[in-house]
Amino acid sequence: MLSSQTPSPREQQGIIQSLCEMNLQSYDWRSLARSINQNPEDIFGEGQNNPQKADALITCAVRYGMSFELSVEIEKMKSKNAQFGSTNISKLDAHIAIQLSKLYSILLEKLDEINAIDEPDSPYLSNGLVEDFTEFHDKLKNKAKFSPTNQALAIRSKNDNGVLKRKAKKLGFDDHFVTLSEKIQKFYSKRILGRFPPDEYNADYRLNELVNELFNILPQEFQQREDIEDQIYGVIFDTTFQCLIFNE
Description:
Number of domains: 2
Distance between the termini: 56 Å
Oligomer: single chain
Order of helices and strands: HHHHHHHHHHHH
Structural class: mainly alpha
Low-confidence stretches: none
Number of strands: 0
Largest sheet: none
Helix content: 55-70%
Mean pLDDT: 84
């Protein structure tokens, strides 16, 4: 719990992280706002996700010298949730899910920049249709013709990505999931298929090129993460599952 002094920037980030891990509902946020004598409508903007609400709440508490009161209310809420058996996401899972959301955000930003200066839409672009896993496996094997190793990688990566996305959504990080898949499709069609046509390069080769291309547009801090390659595969095969890429 915080002291009565103004929390440091690091402590403020810790509170934000803690709030995100609690999977709070609308009424919880309103209660926290009132605990620092503020009208919820004056703090939270329309359409804000949980991380944005947490940031706005902490900023307001610090501004009005109510950080200690807020921390007391947060601890009460945690205790109440535990008492009634609330199943919160673990700290580790929350951290990984937040990291995935950050990856989605930075990829979306970078792909927007690249797609904006690229050539007009590729003839390879197609509308996505979400598959079930039976169809997905058939596509990987018989349509895209991935190697058995990459077929197994695709199933595992899609599963892992799906789990993390669900956890990220519970934490309020779901702004970019659909949009990024569309950007990946456009990037793949222009940058990969345009240079490595399916009649000359197989799916395994194109997959490797796509992974490298996405990795190379990331800032260094993302490239240095131990799990970054796994998460890139997850993004790619989630998009593949939606029938947006590797349809050749």
